[in-house]
Amino acid sequence: RKEVEQDPGPFNVPEGATVAFNCTYSNSASQSFFWYRQDCRKEPKLLMSVYSSGNEDGRFTAQLNRASQYISLLIRDSKLSDSATYLCAAPKAAGNKLTFGGGTRVLVKP
Amino acid sequence: GAVVSQHPSRVICKSGTSVKIECRSLDFQATTMFWYRQFPKQSLMLMATSNEGSKATYEQGVEKDKFLINHASLTLSTLTVTSAHPEDSSFYICSAKYGGGSYNEQFFGPGTRLTVL
């Protein structure tokens, strides 16, 4: 099983709709998780950190399900500018390193 | 968030030459920086962990003699791709760990797109 797995998508989302997708992780001891947004040919930018059951920032909500070992990201009222690849990251078993999932591509269309 | 710069943003070189990439944390001190490589339509692959004042730790399969890392100060890490070949063409991105202890947030530089002819 991969350390961090994501549905690659793409998720085609009508503008204004809600979209949600998950990220599963294998290290049950992980305490922190991160969602990054990456635009084409750009660096990842930190979107949200998740240290407990979840986090919310405006239209974005992240939830952590420790029993099933996944985190989710929900985007409400999708904007065209939300089109990007969303990467989730979890700490490796030891040390400060992060393992990244393959990313989920989201395409918001008018 | 914390700001990380990377230079150059793009480099094209001939096969066999060496290329040096700089990664700087601009508004914080980073005892740990990371170097990643990303091929088209693939995710980030960690190459090595760069620790200030000590040797870098390389991931399995990454040649330490080919990818030389130096972390001479708390704000600067460099990656040198020695004797670059076309298969080394990729997007190289550094990140810096912000905060101490188990606080694992990483902030990324803008990346360096390397093309080896």
Percent of residues in helices of chain A comes to under 10%
First-to-last CA distance of chain B: 36 Å
Q: Which of globular, elongated, flat, extended, rod-shaped describes the shape of chain B?
A: globular
Please report which band the strand proportion of chain A falls in: under 5%, 5-15%, 15-25%, 25-35%, 35-45% or over 45%: over 45%
Strand content of chain B: over 45%
Anisotropy-based shape of chain A: globular
Multimeric organization: heterodimer
Report the end-to-end length of chain A measured between terminal Cα atoms.
37 Å
Computed Rg of chain B: 13 Å
- The total of beta strands of chain A comes to 11
Radius of gyration over C-alpha positions of chain A, nearest whole angstrom: 13 Å
Question: Helix and strand string of chain A, N-terminal first?
Answer: EEEEEEEEEEE
Give average pLDDT of chain B, whole number. Answer: 91
The low-confidence runs of chain A, each spanning 5 or more residues with pLDDT under 50, are none
Q: How many individual β-strands of chain B?
A: 11
Largest sheet of chain A: 6 strands, mixed
Overall pLDDT confidence of chain A? 92
Question: Helical segment tally of chain B?
Answer: 0
Q: Classify the secondary structure makeup of chain A into a structural class.
A: mainly beta
